[in-house]
Amino acid sequence: MKQCIEGSHAVARIVNLCRPGVISAYPITPQTHIVEDLSKLKADGEGDFEYVRADSEFAAASIVLGASAAGVRTYTATSSQGLMLMAEVVFTISGMRLPVVMTCANRAISAPINIWNDQQDVMTVRDSGWILLFAEDNQDVIDMHIMAFKIAEQTKIPVMVNMDGFVLTHTFEPIDLPTQEQVDNYLPKYVPEPGQYLDTENPVSLGCFATPADYINIRQDLQNDLINSKKVIKKEFVNFKKAFSRGSSDLTEYYGAKNAKVVFVALGSVVGTIKEVVDEIPDSAVLSVKCLRPFPAEEIIKKLAKAKYVAVIDKSISLGNEGVLATEIKATLRNSKTKVQSFVAGLGGRDITRKMVGNIYKQVQKSSSKLTFIK
Amino acid sequence: MISMIQVRLHGRGGQGTVTAAELIAVAAFYDGKYSQAFPNFGVERRGAPVMAFARISDHTIRLREQIYEPDYIIVQDPSLVKVEPTVLAGINNSLGILINTEIKEWPQIKCKKIVTVPATKIAMEKIGKPFINTAVIGAFAGMSGLLSIDSIKRAITERFPEKVAVANIAAMEEAFNFTKK
């Protein structure tokens, strides 16, 4: 049923409909409303999960790690400094192949301290071996959560759903929230495989010590499985689209003129604003990267190789180099004649306007600077 | 007819500015429109200037930028007009500005339509406390014709406990009738 509700509230409702067994979290702006609403659902008797209040994000991540290792569906949410504090456990969760689902309400990183939106937080754990999804609007956000559990449990790889802090978490807009029956039809009950979880009937050790003889092999397995997970993600995008009649069937979504001269590339909610600009400029388009890890290189080559100019708009920066996604797009398009440039915008909540995007359209065609800050 | 209407609200922390924007979006949604509401949180403290935004459209709203050229400006605290330069920013093409005040003349504001409503007085009468945001929404609906009374009532009823909702609806209707005439 269509409803006009806050993004965070929608996340809490959809997570509850996904029937997690254990939720643990520590509140941090702008994730707070998600975990407040989840604990309220629990307190009101509407949630059939254990809600474990943690004394830090490190503990919250460790609690969902343990619960997932015990074989139940688990969920946590955080932002910014919270994700920093979780970082060690984030790598451990993927290394142990635990299908945890996390929402990251994307926010800037200190210092200077800043509570507003950018995407520096997720980029710090980009290489952790999680599947990283990016939502463009709040419909995308809730749909990606339903898919996240299904993808994580099939691939045994954790999934992080990224939603821009404040821009999506605190925005009221109409969304179609599925019913319990619809969610149940799409997302089966979680049944962990024997040998994949701690079970006294079938004793195993998880997260063991690995010597040089084994470590690199195990890391290679994770790499191969992440690359192969592209097929599963795409399959689930398609399945979801069939079941719910909405969403994208690709890991990237191209919008705008066919064979456009200038193509913008971006992650998350800024794509909405860019689409408004693209509608005004006939020879432009935008590529929304909905899945950053695994990296959909083949799709990107297919969709961007004919563009004359590509402007990558990053809400994060690899300090000492350039925008994080820009580097990856440049590497991906190394064999094409496309000119790719890095534009860093929106750091620490600086509003990204249509006017800025229009200026980027002009700049990418005339400037040759490696990196441009848009302010 | 303009396909998208943009509303910018100015208030002070504690006045329910963000809630007012949200109620506008929810009411517009019940009227069958697409809508969006979002805050511009500054440093969160009581009394500090707060801005919130609402968009109402016939089409899906994809735009995420803040509102720089609002069709309507809503001012919940009249002292902000003087001290907060963002209040009147981008007013040149605005369709109207609504101010919660008992002062009727605002010669320093250049706008096609300046509407005042004594929302604080109405709130004190109907709610017994200076909770002005529902009165302000009623006044906005009265001046703009953009929201139906029934949809605002539904939005308020769903948001607040019954007793609080009833008092707020009374304030909202009083302010609606005040600006409608």
Tell me what you see in this structure:
The complex is a heterodimer of chains A (375) and B (181). Chain A has 375 residues and is of the alpha/beta class. The longest helix of chain A has 30 residues, at 215-244. Chain A folds into 2 domains: 2-244, Thiamin diphosphate (ThDP)-binding fold, Pyr/PP domains (Rossmann fold), CATH 3.40.50.970; 252-374, 3-Layer(aba) Sandwich (Rossmann fold). Chain A contains 12 helices and 15 strands. In chain A, helix 9 (270-280) packs across helix 12. Chain B has one domain: Pyruvate-ferredoxin Oxidoreductase, domain 3 (3-Layer(aba) Sandwich), CATH 3.40.920. Chain B is 38% helix and 21% strand. In chain B, strand 4, helix 2 (79-83) and strand 5 form a beta-alpha-beta unit.
**Multimerization state:** heterodimer
For the record, the CATH architecture of the largest domain in chain A stands as: 3-Layer(aba) Sandwich
Helix and strand run of chain A? EHEHEHEHEHEHEEHHEEHEEHEHEHE
What is the number of E strands of chain A? 15
Q: Which structural class do you get from the secondary structure elements of chain B?
A: alpha/beta
Kindly estimate the percentage of residues of chain A that lie in beta strands according to DSSP. 15-25%
Helix-strand topology string of chain B: EHEEEHEEHHHH
Identify the strand order in the major beta sheet of chain B: 2-3-1-4-5-6
- The CATH topology of chain B turns out to be Pyruvate-ferredoxin Oxidoreductase, domain 3
What is the distance, rounded to the nearest whole angstrom, between the alpha carbons of the first and last residues of chain A? 40 Å
Shape call of chain B: globular
Number of strands of chain B: 6
Q: What structural class do helix, strand and pairing data of chain A support?
A: alpha/beta
Unreliable stretches of chain A: none
Coarse morphology of chain A: globular
Calculate Rg of chain A over CA atoms: 20 Å
Cα gyration radius of chain B (Å): 15 Å
Side by side, the strands of the main sheet of chain A go 3-2-4-5-7-6-12
What fold name goes in the CATH topology slot of the largest domain in chain A? Rossmann fold
Return the domain count of chain A. Answer: 2
Largest sheet of chain A: 7 strands, mixed
